[in-house]
TrEMBL record:
Species whose genome carries this gene: Scleropages formosus
Highest rank taxon of the organism: Eukaryota
Cofactor(s) of this protein: Ca(2+)
Pfam families named in the record: Glyco_hydro_47
Biological role: Involved in the maturation of Asn-linked oligosaccharides. Progressively trim alpha-1,2-linked mannose residues from Man(9)GlcNAc(2) to produce Man(5)GlcNAc(2).
GO cellular component: endoplasmic reticulum; extracellular exosome; Golgi membrane
Protein name: alpha-1,2-Mannosidase
């Protein structure tokens, strides 16, 4: 029986900042860089995290489970896939996809850095840093996804920089960002989905409606690009993402909803398909998080988020016959009663956005988050493996169950555990830890192989086959959220850090009366 303490365990020390000597603040460990905290001295964030040996004596059973899974995933990648983007754990070799241009960019290394740091795996962190210093090269002839490279690489590098203070991570993030800027060279300023890192030539996915860019891709750049301007003083990054926001604000939105497709040549919507899952999801997430990251001064972002959520509630959120709350998809004038695993992040988003909601709706949105968390837990609980399918339906007498074979797979996705973590942070209801523990045990039982972790092709089969891919986001997100779920609230507190959509923590920017280069005050 797993212990479910009403209060999270803590293994930190309360110390004065070793540099400034201010009043006691929560420091996770003394900084490894010469015994001082460069993050404090540079005024960039409000917490210092740094690993030291022997930090895990007080870890709970649940924390140790997530820690052990991370160690197995990393060690397997280190042995069999080092330098490749991802790992094929059964074939025991490297793996890559077209989102990285099939080049060896070490995506797993960059994606995992902050999780390693957070867990105190400092030897592994230094191995990753050494590889980045010696091998990470953005001058390769590779056509990459602007979105994926931004959230995984720029987000991962920035988080590693803020946590460790190591300048190499900031330098690499800026180098890569410069390689992405040509993607914005379109008639509208809406970036292409892909860009060649060497030539700067961009294009969109061939499958996208009418040559469109994707809402969740061009709408999920704000957090990282604002931090790039903050760190470098170069206004270009901030101006690029604010131009996107201004363009969207001028456009007519059917029923107040944002379609998933926008043509970067004409500035017109493509197919009228709206989703809070794939193709749309993180656009809404980044509206809320832009407000949070600005120390709640970006009221324009907050208003845009609130208006979008109101339209989502009106047109996409429904209850099933048995009372399960779900978020459907709007396609060509009708609601499709299907919810994706990706959509399950929204439970955490609603909870995160509850404080600051218009009117007296904080309780309403916290409850909505809880209802989405419950529905997504049901999608796990109604499978044989107790792992959630890629998508699940709410019609024809079926609820929270996948119908099509190509929607029954689980590829180590984090969104359900992410929502459990946010709901735990805001409610401390022990059921969220219990549900997370069940998910961790199921992943360890059915997805662990000797060479790492693999997704499974059918969560309704007692004898599933593997897809033979250890996704980089498994180390960046799934295992990070699991570990955080069972850790103290003082580890990466939500009043000081905002997580990008790849779970990379970036500090809240406390600018006071100052403004970013290229911006105007929004106060």
């Amino acid at each position: 029986m797993v212990s479910m303490d009403p209060e999270p365990r803590s293994h930190h020390s309360s110390l004065a900042c070793p540099v400034l000597g201010f009043e006691p603040v929560t420091l996770w460990f003394l900084s490894p860089h010469n015994g001082s905290c460069s993050l404090w001295s540079e005024g960039r964030c409000r917490r210092c995290l740094a690993p030291v040996g022997g930090a895990f004596a007080a870890l709970s059973l649940e924390e140790n489970e997530a820690f052990g899974m991370m160690k197995h995933a990393w060690d397997s990648y280190r042995q069999y896939g080092w330098g490749h983007n991802e790992l094929k754990p059964l074939a025991r070799k490297g793996h890559s996809t077209n989102i990285f241009g099939n080049s060896q960019m070490g995506a797993t290394i960059v994606d995992a850095l902050d999780t390693l740091f957070m867990m105190g795996l400092h030897d592994e962190f230094r191995d990753g840093q050494a590889w980045i210093e010696q091998n990470l090269d953005f001058s390769v002839n590779a056509e990459v996804s602007v979105f994926e490279v931004n959230i995984r690489f720029i987000g991962g590098l920035l988080a590693a920089y803020y946590l460790s203070g190591q300048e190499v991570f900031k330098a690499k993030a800026v180098q890569l960002a410069e390689k992405l800027l040509p993607a914005f060279n379109t008639p509208t300023g809406i970036p292409w989905a892909m860009v060649n890192l060497k030539s700067g030539v961009g294009r969109n996915w061939g499958w996208a409606s009418a040559g469109s860019s994707i809402l969740a891709e061009f709408g999920t750049l704000h957090m990282e690009f604002v931090h790039l301007t903050y760190l470098t003083g170069n206004p270009a990054y901030y101006q690029k993402v604010m131009h996107i926001r201004k363009l969207l604000a001028k456009m007519e939105r059917p029923n107040g909803l944002y379609p998933n497709y926008l043509n970067p040549r004409t500035g017109r919507w493509g197919q009228h398909h709206t989703s809070v899952g794939g193709l749309g999801d993180s656009f809404y997430e980044y509206l809320l998080k832009a407000w949070l990251m600005s120390d709640k001064t970006d009221t324009e972002a907050r208003k845009t988020y609130d208006d979008a959520v109101e339209a989502i509630e009106r047109h996409l959120i429904r209850k099933s016959n048995s009372g399960l709350t779900f978020i459907g998809e709007w396609k060509n004038g009708h609601l499709e009663r299907k919810m994706g695993h990706l959509t399950c992040f929204a439970g955490g988003m609603f909870a995160l956005g509850a404080d600051g909601s218009p009117g007296d709706k904080a309780g309403h949105y916290l409850q909505l988050g809880a209802e989405i968390a419950h529905t997504c837990h049901e999608s796990y609980d109604r499978t044989v493996l107790k792992l959630g399918p890629e998508a699940f339906k709410f019609d024809s007498g079926l609820e929270a169950v996948a119908v099509r074979q190509n929607e029954k797979y689980y590829i180590l996705r984090p969104e359900v555990i992410e929502t459990y973590w946010y709901m735990w942070r805001f409610t401390h209801d022990p059921k969220y830890r219990q549900w997370g523990w069940e998910a961790a045990q199921a992943i360890d039982r059915y997805c662990r192989v000797s060479g790492g972790f693999s997704g499974v092709k059918d969560v309704y089969s007692s004898n599933p086959t593997y897809d033979d891919v250890q996704q980089s986001f498994f180390l960046a997100e799934t295992l990070k959220y699991l570990y955080l779920l069972f850790s103290s609230d003082d580890l990466l507190p939500l009043d000081s850090w905002v997580f990008n959509t790849e779970a990379h923590p970036l500090p809240v920017l406390h600018l006071g009366n100052a403004t970013l280069p290229g911006s105007e005050s929004r106060r």
